[in-house]
Amino acid sequence: MRVPTFSKLVLILLITFALTGSAIGQAAPMEIIFDTPQPTLISFQVVFTELPKPDANFSLISKIDRSQRAKPGWALAISNRGSSIRPEAYFRGADGSGGFYLFDRYDFELNRPYWVVFIVQVDRSLSLYIQALEPKHQGDISPSFLGAQSIKNVSIPQPQIAMQISEENQREKLTVSDLRILRPQTLPILPQQVIEFLSGGPEKVVPQH
Question: CA-CA distance, 170 to 141, in Å (whole number)?
Answer without folding.
Answer: 29
